[in-house]
Write a structure and sequence with these properties.
The structure is a homodimer. By secondary structure, chain A is α/β, with parallel strands linked by helices. Chain A folds into three domains: about 150 residues, NAD(P)-binding Rossmann-like Domain (Rossmann fold, 3-Layer(aba) Sandwich), CATH 3.40.50.720; about 170 residues, Dihydrodipicolinate Reductase, domain 2 (2-Layer Sandwich); about 80 residues, ACT domain (Alpha-Beta Plaits). Chain A contains 14 helices and 17 strands. In chain A, the strands form three sheets. In chain A, strands 7, 8, 9, 10, 11, 12 and 13 form a seven-stranded mixed sheet that branches. A six-stranded parallel sheet of chain A has the order 3-2-1-4-5-6, with helices on both faces. In chain A, strands 15-16-14-17 form a four-stranded antiparallel sheet, sandwiched between helices. In chain A, strand 9 and strand 10 form a beta hairpin. The model of chain A has no long low-confidence stretch (mean pLDDT about 95). At the A-B interface, helix 1, helix 2, helix 6, strand 12 and helix 12 of A face helix 1, helix 2, helix 6, strand 12 and helix 12 of B.
Amino acid sequence: MQEVNVALIGLGNVGMGAAGILAGNADRIARKLGFPLRVKALCSRTVSGKTLPPAFDGVFRTSDWREAVAYPGVDIVAELVGGTTDAAAIIETAISAGKSVVTANKELMALRGAGICDRAAAAGINIAMEASVAGGIPIHNVLREGIAGDRITALFGILNGTCNYILTEIEKNGTAFGDVLAEAQRLGYAEQDPSADIDGGDARSKLAILAALAFGEQISPEAIFKEGIRRITPLDFDYADRLNHTIRLIGSARNVDEGLLLAVRPALIPKTAIMAGVTGSYNAVWVRGEYGQDTFYYGRGAGPSPTGVAVVSDLMRVAREIRAGSPLRVSPFAHAHLGGNRVCGIEHARSAYYLRFRVTDRPGIIATLASILAAKNISLDAVLQLPTDSKQNLPFVITVEPATERSIRQALDEMKGLDFLVEPPLALPIEKGV
Amino acid sequence: MQEVNVALIGLGNVGMGAAGILAGNADRIARKLGFPLRVKALCSRTVSGKTLPPAFDGVFRTSDWREAVAYPGVDIVAELVGGTTDAAAIIETAISAGKSVVTANKELMALRGAGICDRAAAAGINIAMEASVAGGIPIHNVLREGIAGDRITALFGILNGTCNYILTEIEKNGTAFGDVLAEAQRLGYAEQDPSADIDGGDARSKLAILAALAFGEQISPEAIFKEGIRRITPLDFDYADRLNHTIRLIGSARNVDEGLLLAVRPALIPKTAIMAGVTGSYNAVWVRGEYGQDTFYYGRGAGPSPTGVAVVSDLMRVAREIRAGSPLRVSPFAHAHLGGNRVCGIEHARSAYYLRFRVTDRPGIIATLASILAAKNISLDAVLQLPTDSKQNLPFVITVEPATERSIRQALDEMKGLDFLVEPPLALPIEKGV
């Protein structure tokens, strides 16, 4: 059968990973497909300096993406440049030229994915984006087809490998956040400007994409509450341990009475949860369905080869559909507006909470805090204090029974003026659902 | 767009689960597909006695599967009767009639899946079988499409929920195998004749299907080594615990120098492994790829609704392909003969082993056993003996460093004649790969 031809645009980590697989695994891919998947054009701003697989020796190379998109015979454009400017232009140009698109671009797809997919559908071309979320985990495939018959009611993800690496290093070695971050930067696991990762923005884009697919709703990343991991200390892991829990940055989307509740924030999860076994830079997604109940997916969150597998698997699927003559089979956002999933505010969240305080010790502190919580109808569950010798910066923890985020925030607000607090209290939800 | 019509044949657990989802989730399914998925015929030997969803009130019902397959307008036949006789006839009749097939039949597909898929391909119809393995986990979808770009090098699965339930009950409560089995039978978790589950036959069929898909090889279930869980005692969990391991029935398929190595057997796995967190009747699959590295999939192994999700998701995929005019997109066994994966014998397995003995105590036992192992070039790792007061039936454990199954078997063979052994030694591999 006739080959399907690909233009690879962007030869950074992901592009080089995909190129390596397309070259090294070409025979197997052709046998699986029944026809060859051919790289016809390679594009990077620094293409002349790239060491590419020898299999690509005769392949057209350019530093101008327009030439790659327009190259004769190209059926699928793989947009692997990232960002939202050039990437958007590349994708729109491909759509206009009637070429299918495979992208690894979480930021762009989270911001403008629904519109892009609509235009792709109108143009009768396919667009695939498995690599945009949780690199090596085929979670798009699972949500779009594998469990398509179910009605998803909740989804929880560890979606940022850098944060998970930092948190599990703090947990394992008791090292302070800043020291772990510095070491992660030294090792190349964290960016020199780490804020997109550690403040939750990256995980939020990924959650927006997954939730759109799982709940059939257009979701703006900005509408998702986010809180990063800068305030998590080794001490928090000690207290969590005492409660038989650990701490992870969890992106969550779930149906509640008020609508679809979305958040990215550090949370306590039970040590017995499978999710608690997700350490280092791995990613994971927990899905709950009305019919299929709980399923769980785990793998590498990033890295050239795992993300490359996602890109190449997408290329294979799109190529197969092109050869079958049905280019648009199912778009990532085709389920938009399944209904009943209006996004609601974080104040409707309801769970048990872990409240960690740092105070200048004196009598009556617990009584003061307890009475503020009681006034908001929040019931104390436990008060924990691990041994310490600092009376001037004394940490302790109060856990409370399930309460709404609104009432917790109101209580924390009232605590603001208390002069014995060394810093604002840290409030983390205790997730029982994973 | 025009509806796609389904005949549901078999209204046992799985059939009723699928029927419930097709009725209860019909609107959402139609919105996802862009057209309705309609149940046009319902068939069961006891169809008149079934309480079916009210949505199906006007639907044609019959106790004769031939009538259901032949019913006018039926596009897809869902074979949910199980077994290998009627099921085979139903599927072959559907293929002959040019109707696509969705099946949940692990036994039939393990035995004759490749031939059935070849005939389906020749007839230009689609066949899907997600529900045949690991009910609620979309592992077929993952292997066929989600990580299609990868080259899989190993796959490990907890594929039998009954065995996993029994093992984790022994682990949790220290109850003897026979008592847990009796309780499981009382609760309906185990069959009155439990041998297909507890002797590994059911898991072996599932492994044959998964390995065929993952490694592109036709695999006869009979060619797979199997060993059940009847000999696992609470004591084995105590010893495993001392080694910081637990015990699960693991179906494994992996590339070794000699070919593709397949086995279903109880194995020690590290407590820190995510796989060790799979308890009760859950199933899980661990996949290792050359490029994507490790991914892991977890969910309900059985149950009407989780398995029903697999059936309905398959129906949706096949329906979409029918509407797109490309009925045969990718068959479950389409990857047959990717090459390089000739099945090799279990004697080529290589791992550390746990050897548990029961002896009549007397001096020199360890020396005797150690010299037999040494003669086969097997190195002792540790000797463990938990406190006991039985000198006539004294258990202890020897762990050995990585050795081949062949050498272990030769050593066990030589131990056969030793008069101090109360029973043949129990040898379990220690799996480090999961």
